[in-house]
Write a structure and sequence with these properties.
The chain is α/β, with parallel strands linked by helices. It is built from 5 helices and 7 strands, in the order E-H-E-H-E-H-E-H-E-H-E-E. The protein is globular and about 35 Å long.
C-alpha cells in the first residue's frame, strides 16, 4: 500500500473504539493540518502502524477483538522503538492497567477524560522526535523505523 504525503510532515494514528473520541481527535488534528489514520481495535491499529508509519499513536487500552495491551505486547516484542510514539488514552481503572512499564518506554499515559490542550501538546512533542522511514519489507517484518532527525 502506498501512503499519501503528509501535509505538514506529521501523521497520527487514533486507535480507539469510541466513535465520539475518534471524531473529536480527527477534527482537532486535521484542523492542525495533520494526516489522520484511524483504527477501532488492536488488529487494525497494528496494520495501520505497518502501512502508514504514524509519527504519533493514540492508543486506547480497552478495545474489542484485540486490545491496546495486545498492541503494546506486539510492539515490545517486534519493534520496541515504536513504543516511544505511543500515547495511551484510557478510562480503565488503575488496577486494570497494571504496570505499563512492562511493555517498554511509552511516551505518555493520559486518563480519560483528557485535557485537549495537554493531549495536543503531547502529540506534537511525540511526533517531533523525528521522521519515520520505512524499512525494507525483509527487515523486522515491515515495521517502520525511527531515524535520527
Amino acid at each position: 500500500m502506498t501512503t499519501l504525503p503528509r501535509p505538514n510532515g506529521f501523521r497520527v494514528l487514533i486507535a480507539d473504539d469510541d466513535d465520539a473520541v475518534q471524531r473529536l481527535l480527527t477534527i482537532l488534528f486535521e484542523r492542525e493540518g495533520w494526516d489522520v489514520v484511524r483504527a477501532t481495535n488492536g488488529i487494525e491499529a497494528l496494520e495501520m502502524i505497518r502501512s502508514h508509519a504514524p509519527d504519533a499513536i493514540l492508543l486506547d487500552l480497552m478495545m474489542p477483538d484485540s486490545s491496546g495491551f495486545d498492541v503494546l505486547r506486539e510492539l515490545r516484542d517486534l519493534a520496541p522503538a515504536l513504543l516511544r510514539q505511543i500515547i495511551v488514552l484510557t478510562a480503565a481503572a488503575p488496577n486494570m492497567i497494571g504496570d505499563l512499564g512492562q511493555f517498554g518506554e511509552i511516551w505518555k499515559m493520559l486518563r480519560k477524560p483528557f485535557d485537549i490542550n495537554e493531549l495536543r501538546g503531547e502529540v506534537l512533542a511525540c511526533a517531533s522526535q523525528g521522521p519515520l522511514t520505512r524499512r525494507p519489507a525483509s527487515s523486522a517484518g515491515g515495521w517502520p523505523a525511527r531515524t535520527a532527525p
